[in-house]
Amino acid sequence: MAIARDAADQSLVLLENGGALPLTAGANVAVLGPCGDVFKGGYSGNFPTTSVADALRALDFRVAESPGCVPDPRLAGNAAKIACVADADATADAVAAARAADVVVLALGVSQDLEQENFDFRAFADFGLGLPPGQLAAARAVLKLGKPTVLLLTGASVDATPILRDVDAVLWAGYAGQFGGEAVAAALAGHANPSGRLPMTWYAQDFYEAWTAPALDPYTGAVNASSANASYFDASLLPNNATGNPGRTYRYYTKTPVYAFGAGRSYSNVTSALASPADAAVDVAAVAAHAAEAAREAVFVRASPRVATDVVVYTLEVVVTNEGPYAGAQTLLVFAAPPAPGVDGAPLEQLVDFGKTATLAVGASATLRVPIHAHDLTLVDAARGGRAAAPGLWTLRASVAGRERDVRVRLRVR
């Protein structure tokens, strides 16, 4: 149980915070929306969970609740509750609760009832990658009050762009598990300092509109005229001008995401400084030797244990300092961008490693050391299979708590 709680605490991702978080102790909070108890992901066991509202009450907050919308009559059970529709009385109830509160927590998003293996209701629903219409209508009505508002999002990625400018903080809980309610309440109250980072790219609602050309159904060979279905038939990660495919994942997506892979902030003001050389040379022969060995051994991804040729070619050292006002752990993500990003199948960048500090007291620093191996400076050899060295200027990007604080290193493979 302790592991489940620790995992929940560490998984929460603070995406925005304009000062609404942490909440003032004992505040009057309105938890609005149908997703305040969405914590079970795929293949979850049959375990009890605590809602965010009840977990806040246990921390001595005064809490009112309202879903703000009513179940979709076309659906049943929890799916109907989450994919809710607008209702004047339900909206009025949520607005009244918000008006009486010091701060509002909008608990919105999706659940496994709408997205799961072999069933994706969102692909066929009118809201697609966005918020269900009932959730969005209630949120807009509440936001007109101008109360300090925290947007709590559950489930997978959701494009909440229509209301993002009007909220003061955004916390993503995903599927936080057995102790998700307690973890979210602790983060909202400032008893825990969020340190998670987004594990996927958040695409905009118009993602599927990018496909402008018909596609061939790979099963029948017939031309498919629907742009929505065309995206299904062009499943490549790589951008494709012929089909309008903008690319998929942070490695290849060429448009601006709602939130990028690896996004995440902290309640603390965190700084990072490079302690290793900002410019270094790497022997291309060492990288090529590993690429040849990887091809012989069919090592297409970084192997564990490593093959003998996958030597360390550079050690990245980043000093992370917590300038306060809260103690907390910090997560470091290290990306490598090749000499010609996005050209001939090369990624824009790729995650090569990550690390995390212990909890840092205010004013404390920690040095994170990340070895960069020969494999990290190779690319897929599409013509011959395996991997190949890529001579030229590689750029390492070390990211800690916000892209504006990133540090960079130039590695010249020659």
User: What structural class do the secondary elements suggest?
Assistant: alpha/beta
Molecular shape: globular
Low-confidence stretches: none
Report strand order across the widest sheet: 1-8-7-4-2-3
| SSE ordering | HEEHEHHEEEHEHEHEEHHEEHEEEEEEEE
How many H/I helices? 10
Strand portion, in percent? 25-35%
How widely separated are the two ends?
A: 51 Å
Strand elements, count: 20
Radius of gyration, CA atoms, in whole angstroms: 23 Å
Residue share in helix: 10-25%
List keywords for this structure.
single chain, 414 residues, alpha/beta, six-stranded mixed sheet, five-stranded mixed sheet, 26% strand, globular
Short description, anyone?
This protein has helices at residues 2-11, 52-58, 77-82, 88-99, 133-143, 161-164, 180-189, 227-233, 249-252, 284-296, and strands spanning 13-17, 28-32, 62-66, 103-109, 115-116, 119-120, 149-154, 169-174, 215-216, 223-224, 270-274, 279-282, 312-322, 331-337, 350-356, 365-373, 378-380, 387-389, 392-400, 407-413. The chain is of the alpha/beta class and 414 residues long.
What does this structure look like?
By secondary structure, the chain is α/β, with parallel strands linked by helices. The protein is 20% helix and 26% strand. The protein contains ten helices and 20 strands. The strands form six sheets. Strands 1-8-7-4-2-3 form a six-stranded mixed β-sheet, sandwiched between helices. The protein starts with a helix and ends with a strand.
